[in-house]
Every structure is written in structure tokens, then in C-alpha cells.
């Protein structure tokens, strides 16, 4: 099967050009000057399918390097399965995810890794890889980190919060970092000071402050800045590379920037919710069907932060200046009915998470329209950098010969109304993005050479997506 995408504006992180893209089987075979022949053959008359992309952007498929499909968490499971979540991702122009294998304390990480394969295999619409979560850092886990690396799991996530669930203490973190420093893998960190947060939560609930609004107020930026700094110091001590997930506080960004200026291999990820949404808006949402409990829709950790304090503005700036390198979703959806509503009367029981896997490419494209980032930077933060950060580049994250045929045709003259009247495809009974309007539209999504979304129709099949073995981060030498 050969497909020619002709006359499109091909956008890579390195630049933009009008070109034809030839996909042969699962792989990009050539990027050609429009209408050119190949070894004397007229290309267009020698392919099976021709797609005219005139006036549209032809970009490498999005890579969401932070998702939690069907994660057991907060007394329930994230509501998207690998099937529903990856299909929603495809609708939104994302052609690869990296999901987190969960280890709770006492569990064996290799058993968990195999369990995650069972959940995903045969169910995914797009390609997927895995990171491994480490909770209690067992001696056997340190050995297993090498085995997982050989399986293509080259990044390990630790938590400085969620006592009794995920939390590792500083000694355990240091041990895992020592291992990462020696085997070349990446340490990912949920950087919030869990003891401080647990105290503030306990005090709030005891004082009768039980509404969702107290979620953000009991997870202050100081807890994020402090933990980010501590993680950076432990990485400095051990020589491990550090990737800080879901950065929301401007002060945490500044810690990451300072570490980078200091020559450390420290990287930062943010999410669409920290670019667009704020604590004030969460506080203001009182009038929907859930009244004062509406705010539960946006309970996630790290939390939404105050717009008055300037976090969102600072985050866009950091994305532009490369103090923050990439954008993932932390896709962790829960329904209001039967899941989030477990926290009626006690905000600390609301499962933490927002679903955005379908909307990341659109939401970041709006940043291009609004002149917050350039067109090439859009591709870089949503695809190219995730590929390089997590050892996929060359196959993923770029339109070039030899790369997988993961291509999105994006229409800058189209329009997308997000979440409105439940037009999204995530398995949720609400949308955190209700009412967002995007001046652009995902037209066609191609995954390893196969069209899976075409003109507002899903035409793929479950099981199209395959496990992707990752190498070491291509940012490290
Ligand atoms: N934050 C969330 O909001 N959900 C999943 C886990 C996390 O760290
Ligand atoms: Zn986290
Ligand atoms: Zn997460
Ligand atoms: Zn369109």
C-alpha cells in the first residue's frame, strides 16, 4: 500500500516546506518537491491512494508521553481503557502514547509490566510504549530496571507525594537514581511535598473545609517548588537525568531553568490544563448540575494554579524559551457520576485526574493561532521532543524517510468545538474542556501508513496499535 500526500505544508520541528510525502507500507519512503518524479517514475500514478493536502499542515503524529489508561487509583479505575483512550487520542491527532505501568508498594514490577501488556495488547488504536512507576524501591526492582530497559522501558517514575499509595522516601529515590545514573535510564518525578500536603488536607477537612475548592488550596506552589528543588539536588548528587512531570507552578519552572543553566540534565513537562485553566475558574464553577461540587471536574495533581499569581502566563513563556521542553496530558479521566462523586463531602476522596488525551494537539495549536508559540515549536513540544526525550526519535516525531508513517493532516481553516455536547470520544460523562473553541481541525490521521481517522470518521480497528520498544533518551550523551 502506497500513499502520496501531495501539496501539503510539511512542518517538522526544524522547519516548514511545501512538499509531497510518500508512504510505502508502514514507513515514510520519501519527502519530495511537489510533483517531482522518483527515478524517472511519476509518483502519483504509481501509488494506491493520493491525498491532496493543499492549504493544510502535514505534521508528525502527536506523541503523548504521559497517560494513565485504566489505572487503578483513588479507589477506582481511570475510566478510559486502552481501547477507548487510544481511540480518543487518534481522533485528536495523537499516534503514540507512553503509559505508566503501576507498581503499588509490595508488588513486583516485572509482574506489573506483564499485566500492563495484557491490558494493552490487541486493544490499542495507536502505538504505545510504557514507563514504569516505582513505589517502594525494592532491591529486586533495581535489578528489574535493567531487564525492563532491555524490554524498551527506559524511564522510571517516582512520587514525592501520595503516602501509602505511591510515595517513595528520599533514600529510596536516591537508590533508584543511582541505578538510573548507571544504566542510562531517565528518572521521572512527581514533585510535590507529600507530608506538607497531607497535613494541610487533614487540617482543612477537620475545619469543615470539604469542598473541591480546597484541593488546590491544600497543594500550594511552595510544596511543588520545594519538592522540585529536592529532586534536582538528589539528581545532582547521583548524576541521574531528571524529568519533572506535570509542572504547574512558575516557581518550579524557575528551579528547572536554574538547574539547566547549571548544566544539569533536568527537563520539565507541562500539561494543557496548566497552560489554560486556573484555580479562579475552578472556584467560579458553581452553577452546573453539581453546584458547589462542580470544581471536582478539575481536581488533578499538581493542581490548577492561581491566574492572579501568573502561573499560566509564565508557563507559555517557559514553553517558548525552552525552560519547559514538552507538553503531555497526564490523561487520567474519571466520570463525575460514580467516581469523582466519591468526594462529595470530602474533597480528599475525589479521584485526581483530568482527561485531555484527545485535545492536546488542538489546544496547543491554538497557542500557535494566539501567537504564544510558533508552528514549528507546536510540532516540537507535542511530537519531536517527546520522541527524543524517551528514545523514539527517527521512527517517531519527524517526517523524514525511514520514519514510521505516523502523519496528521491538520486544517488551519477548520474549526473544532471541544467537549461541546459531548463531541469528544473519551470515556467520560463530562469534559474538563467544555466550551473551548479551536481555530483548526484534525482532518486525517495516519498510523504506520494506515488511515485511521478520515474526515470526522474513525476508520481504524482496535489492535492497529503495537507496543513500541524505546531506547535511551536521545537528549543524553
Ligand atoms: N495526578 C493526577 O491528577 N492523576 C494521576 C496521578 C497524578 O499524579
Ligand atoms: Zn503525578
Ligand atoms: Zn500522571
Ligand atoms: Zn476539516
From TrEMBL:
Signal peptide segment: none
Pfam families, A to Z: Amidohydro_1
InterPro entries named among the record's database cross-references: Amidohydro-rel, Hydantoinase/dihydroPyrase, Metal-dep_hydrolase_composite, Metal_Hydrolase, Metallo-dep_Hydrolases_sf
An MF annotation (GO) of this entry: dihydropyrimidinase activity
Keywords of this entry: Hydrolase, Metal-binding
Domain of life from the UniProt record: Bacteria
Tagged with keyword Nucleotidyltransferase: no
Top EC class of this enzyme: hydrolase
Assigned GO CC terms: cytosol
Residues annotated with N6-carboxylysine modification: 157
Post-translational modification summary for this protein: Carbamylation allows a single lysine to coordinate two divalent metal cations.
Cofactor dependency: Zn(2+)
Domain spans labelled Amidohydrolase-related: 57-451
E.C. designation(s): 3.5.2.2
UniProt keyword annotation of RNA-binding present: no
NCBIfam families, per the entry: D-hydantoinase
Family: Belongs to the metallo-dependent hydrolases superfamily. Hydantoinase/dihydropyrimidinase family.
The protein's name: Dihydropyrimidinase
Organism: Lacisediminihabitans profunda
Name of the gene encoding the protein in the UniProt record: hydA
